[in-house]
Amino acid sequence: MSVHICIVDYISAGDIEKYSYCPLSWWLSRKEKHTENEGVRKHREISEEAKKMKKSYSKMKDSESMAIYYSIGATLIALVGISFLYSSPILSRIFMILAIVWLLFSLYLLWKFEKYVLLWERKDVERVMVIASGAATIFSIFAVTFVLPPNFALGYVMEVLSLLWLIFATYFLYISLKSEFQYNELKKKLKLPDGEIIYVDDLQQSPILKSEKYKIWGRPDLLIKKGDDYIPVEIKTGRVPRGPLFSHIMQLTAYMVLVEENYKTPPYGLLKYGPVVYKIEYEEDLRNIMLEKVEEMRRALETGEVHRNHHKVGKCIHCSRRNICPERLA
């Protein structure tokens, strides 16, 4: 799907698709006004469904995190409450030993982080270091509270508070499961691959992806994050071909170039025709072919000379501009 936006000296991925189909058809399309047809309407419907999926996924993850936080909080508050109900030097010593163990583990991680950890591993080590330090702090608190004199009133208040936190945890767990169900239903309806939808083609909310290096721009229909990879998805709503069309591959390749420059080099992109999905590997040869098309388009814009580049009657029959085309075959 393409939308005409004035970006000086930039070529859109949608225009690359049109040019790759037929240069003359692309040239004639430049004079067209953007009108809503069946394909545009279907694309808008898919975008709306994808936005709902993106929202459901975010809600699911946020609620899941809140459920975990409240569950951990309820457990800690309950333990603190128990420590106020009675004194236990034995438990105090146990928690002190645990605190020392976790503190030593934190120091080990810090040493490993500075000496041996590779750059791509650092985030994971930092995360574990924070957890280990937090655990050492919590065990230290328990070690102190279990040797303090009993305070039954405060202990009962803490136990009631822990129950309230547990109720909140249950509520957020329910919201998470409900959002997950909605997400899976929409995913099944759209027949989309696994991964988190992080980008949807939306004029109001989604930024234009631009390549300063190659002077091209575009908005992929979807951008899915799968693990550490960003996968562009182009959805075609017309007939299902026997294989991926060259013009569509060129458009998807342009999106892969944009993803590479704005996010990270994608291993592949996906072309979706109804229920059929084709995986297009991101290869240097494919990118060079697409960039050659872009250079041809720039020369055409400079000279104003464009011609049909094929002898396929079928292409002309299915072309929406054949009635105004001076070189049509049918």
Explain what the structure shows.
The strands form two sheets. This protein has a five-stranded mixed β-sheet with strand order 2-5-6-7-8, sandwiched between helices. Strands 1-4-3 form a three-stranded mixed β-sheet. The chain starts with 10 loop residues before the first strand and ends in a 12-residue tail after the last helix. It contains nine helices and eight strands. 60% of the residues lie in helices and 12% in strands. Mean pLDDT is 81; it is low at 1-6. The radius of gyration is 29 Å and the shape is elongated. The protein has two domains: 11-35 and 193-324, Alpha-Beta Complex (Lambda Exonuclease, Chain A); 58-190, no CATH class. It has 330 residues and is of the alpha/beta class.
Percentage of residues assigned to helices:
55-70%
Order of helix and strand elements from N to C terminus: EHHHHHHEEEEEHEEHH
Lateral strand order in the biggest sheet: 2-5-6-7-8
Main sheet: strands, sense, barrel: 5 strands, mixed
Work out the strand percent. Answer: 5-15%
